[in-house]
Amino acid sequence: MAALGANLAIAVSKFVAFAFSGSSSMLAEGVHSLADSGNQFLLLVGGKKAQRAATPQHPFGYGRERYIYAFLVSIVLFSVGGMFAIYEGYEKISHPHEVEHWYWPVGVLLFAIIAEGFSFRTAIKESNALRGGLSWAQFVRRAKAPELPVVLLEDFGALIGLVLALLGVGLALLTGNGVWDGIGTVCIGVLLVLIALVLAAETKSLLLGEAAGADVVQQIETAMVDGDTVTRVIHMRTLHLGPEELLVAAKIAVRHDNTATEIATAIDAAEARIRAAVPIARVIYLEPDIYSETEAARGADPEATPGGPTPHPAPGH
Predict the structure, then answer these.
(1) Does the global pTM surpass 0.70?
(2) Is 193 helix (H, G, I), strand (E, B) or coil?
(3) Mean pLDDT, all residues of the chain
């Protein structure tokens, strides 16, 4: 919401500055801010749609809608922001003209830097509460919720773009050559294209389906084994159904002399321990089995081995 408010105000001011000055950097930056505003709106829509309850047709819910809308953001940023800026910069380099009423673009750029700085500061504050000891690059790569990484990259790119626009306008004013304004515009476009490609790569990975992080997997395994009825985890798979929804499927080893009632009770207890340790583990499927050294030697997932046993669901779980 902070980013949306800031970008709408900045977009209006940039278009006003373009109307008075004719600066192509201002036009490119105005379109950039307008695209960013649309992107924040898409993220809000995706977040709202992801809250819908599961249906028979979509039994695991709509959590991945957030990833779809985040991917749309990368497309908008690439096409509307990046490619338009590159085209506009090329036109300005081919047909340069002096920047008029220089105080408009300079004043708007300074205002925009302050507004984007506010938005960027808000995104940093919200991200610091989640990233722990991760570096910023690691946080962007590993975050399962797409909104904060998208806003962080957008605001970071916007601040750099504003500096480039300021340099382009400044050099055009100092030299009297409008080509510098066009060069600044092309640089803004290239920057936006690069950010869009990074966003597309990250959201594509989330759309394909990412497992839980290594630390979360370790917490689940620790909670699952009680050392009494559940003696070990034979193999396990996790999948993010959404940023706050995790599917856990595992084959667990139980003692050969346990009764069906004891095994069912042990599975219920294991599920409760997992949810207590990792609250986002919403969907859990545990299949009991007798641990076999031969089966373990085949690898982490014996059922994926050609000729291995046919997968089958655990009764009642």
Answers:
(1) no
(2) helix
(3) 82
